From TrEMBL:
<dbReference type="InterPro" id="IPR006674">
    <property type="entry name" value="HD_domain"/>
</dbReference>
<dbReference type="GO" id="GO:0016787">
    <property type="term" value="F:hydrolase activity"/>
</dbReference>
<keyword id="KW-0378">Hydrolase</keyword>
<dbReference type="InterPro" id="IPR003607">
    <property type="entry name" value="HD/PDEase_dom"/>
</dbReference>
<dbReference type="Pfam" id="PF01966">
    <property type="entry name" value="HD"/>
</dbReference>
<feature type="domain" description="HD">
    <location>
        <begin position="29"/>
        <end position="130"/>
    </location>
</feature>
<protein>
    <submittedName>
        <fullName>Phosphohydrolase</fullName>
    </submittedName>
</protein>
Length: 218
């Protein structure tokens, strides 16, 4: 496939996804897709991955989400139909379906990504959960659930028992410790890891400052 056909498909996918996710408020809005796609391109270039597959998989990666469809299977069928209708070559289409279905796999113990392109797109998705964007998203998500952003009686920095911790309220700050601070060790690619380290440090600095300001120390 030539570059012009590829560019046309990317353009059509962008319009399709923007339209589908415009009013989405679960943390997978169009701008999440935009950022993941930008990061996927950056990492793909550094890692020598197939740019077309990475970009198209990043654009479509949340379309099959169960929150937007009757079920995940129905969502995946829709993505497949879209790829067929837009005449994406079979090999690329299979590859993209394989990436999206592995990424959205919700069963216990997610299987690792099988290809470099899959690793790139998963890294890009994880990057959007950390750093400045991750911080914005965690507070937006917590607020949408009506949760507090911090409960000082459940301070995750203290040596609490698992039970004490679990009985505490689910807050935005807790989510840093439950998930966000663990993501840097789950990165697949070298360049993804490099970007994750910068974002991780930014979250650590943020948390230091958060606790200092909480106690009026800064
Ligand atoms: P993804 O599908 O990208 O893996 P999720 O749907 O789990 O992510 O979450 C979307 C966004 O909401 C992420 O940025 C995540 O950090 C945030 N989020 C998910 N669960 C919680 C929670 N319990 N508290 C605060 N933020 C959360
Ligand atoms: Ni995503």
């Amino acid at each position: 496939m030539n570059e012009i056909s590829q560019a046309r498909i990317i353009q059509q996918a962008t319009e399709f996804v923007r339209c589908e996710l415009e009013n989405e408020s679960s943390g997978h809005d169009w701008y999440h897709i935009y950022r993941v796609t930008q990061s996927a391109k950056t990492i793909a270039i550094e890692e020598g991955a197939d740019l077309f597959v990475c970009e198209l998989a990043a654009l479509l990666h949340d379309i099959a989400d169960a929150k937007l469809n009757v079920s995940e299977e129905v969502g995946l069928t829709r993505v497949n139909a879209w790829l067929d209708q837009h005449e994406v070559p079979t090999e690329a289409s299979h590859h993209i379906m394989q990436i999206i279905s592995t990424m959205s796999y919700k069963g216990g113990g997610k299987p690792p990504m099988a290809t470099l392109e899959g690793m790139v797109v998963q890294d890009a998705d994880r990057l959007d959960a950390i750093g400045a964007m991750g911080i914005a998203r965690v507070f937006a998500f917590s607020g949408s659930k009506g949760r507090k952003f911090h409960d000082p009686s459940v301070d995750p920095r203290m040596n609490m028992s698992e039970e004490e911790y679990r009985n505490g309220e689910d807050t935005a700050i807790n989510h840093f410790y439950e998930k966000l601070l663990k993501l840097k060790d789950l990165m697949n690619t070298n360049y993804g890891r490099k970007l994750a380290l910068g974002r991780h440090q930014f979250m650590l600095d943020y948390l230091d400052r958060f606790y200092a300001e909480w106690d009026g120390k800064k």
